[in-house]
Design a protein that fits this description.
This protein is an alpha/beta fold. The protein contains eleven helices and ten strands. It folds into three domains: 75 residues, Glutaredoxin (3-Layer(aba) Sandwich); 123 residues, Glutathione S-transferase Yfyf (Class Pi), Chain A, domain 2 (Up-down Bundle), CATH 1.20.1050.10; 61 residues, no CATH class. Helices cover 52% and strands 10% of the residues. Strand 3 and strand 4 form a beta hairpin. 38% of the residues are buried.
Length: 290
């Protein structure tokens, strides 16, 4: 049986689980105990040096990066297809572009909102500003998605497909945050429709169960026992949205990390720009400097 290293809250892992369930492919889902710890001596770390989920194990194949996994699943189990036919390259590109925006811009907004809501990385005026930025950017992305959906039942037209699997974890996270599409809008009706599919309903049930323990699990990240990853688009979102203090606090407290290779933010020393290093207490949280 396939082994899928995942976390139920991960939108990337949700996308892969939905695809596997749509195709009727059985798999064993495992949450790596070492996720976020920086350990390199575990089967999970051996399968993915980036130490990110999801990771798919199929015999000797070790596959990471959710889009690569999706491509593998589509080729390995072609029925029912999630991508449009090969004879329609424009439609296939449409699906992939939708996925790419969801995986980068949309995921970053959701991640940033979660850093404030679940991990309490900002307080006061800074938290208010970051939440407002996330709400406005969510509205913009949802309008873009609504335009791509149009009056169709699914993003691919008449059949559930690749873009639906990629978009629904992101939209559902927004709904969880209270940033849902306008009531009665095409995107809201699509979300209500898609969440009833068995593949999606099961995946979202796992998400809901995991979210109930999210606040308790956040303590491990506050103390530095685990570190949140600030990867590419996430780091960009935090900086451009006015949250550079959140990043600096994470470096100071040693509770953020950057992608492999190398490790930054693994210690408690924070460079203050004066030629020396200072140590700040972990309990300090980023807040608006004003």
């Amino acid at each position: 049986m396939l082994l899928l290293y995942e976390h139920p809250v991960s939108s990337y892992a949700q996308k892969v689980k939905i695809a596997l369930r749509e195709k009727g492919v059985p798999f064993e889902a495992v949450v790596p105990e070492d996720l976020g710890t920086g350990r390199t001596d575990t089967p999970f770390a051996a399968a993915n040096p980036r130490a990110e989920v999801p990771v798919l194990i199929d015999g000797e194949a070790r596959i990471f990066e959710s889009t690569v996994i999706m491509e593998y699943v589509e080729e390995r189990w072609p029925e029912p297809p999630l991508l449009p036919p090969r004879g329609d390259p424009a439609a296939r590109a449409f699906a992939r572009v939708t996925e790419d925006v969801c995986d980068t811009q949309y995921e970053a907004v959701n991640w940033g909102f979660g850093e404030v809501l679940w991990f309490r990385r900002a307080a006061g005026a800074l938290a208010d500003r970051l939440r407002a930025q996330a709400a406005e950017q969510t509205r913009v992305i949802q309008e873009w998605l609504a335009g791509r959906l149009g009056d169709a039942e699914w993003f691919g037209g008449e059949r559930f497909g690749w873009a639906d699997a990629a978009a629904v974890p992101m939209v559902n996270r927004s709904v969880h945050y209270g940033l849902e599409p306008p009531s009665g809008s095409p995107l809201a009706r699509w979300h209500a429709r898609v969440r009833e599919r068995p593949s999606v309903a099961q995946t979202f049930a796992e998400f809901n169960a995991a979210v109930t323990n999210r606040a308790a699990g956040a303590e491990a990240y506050a103390t530095g026992a685990k570190r949140r990853e600030c990867r590419d688009h996430r780091l960009e979102w935090m900086v451009k949205s006015g949250g550079i203090e959140v990043v600096l606090a994470g470096l100071r407290d040693g509770n953020i990390r950057f992608p492999w290779p190398g490790t930054v933010g693994s210690g408690r020393f924070f460079h203050d720009g004066s030629g020396g290093d200072v140590v700040e207490p972990r309990q300090n949280r980023a807040s608006d400097p004003a």
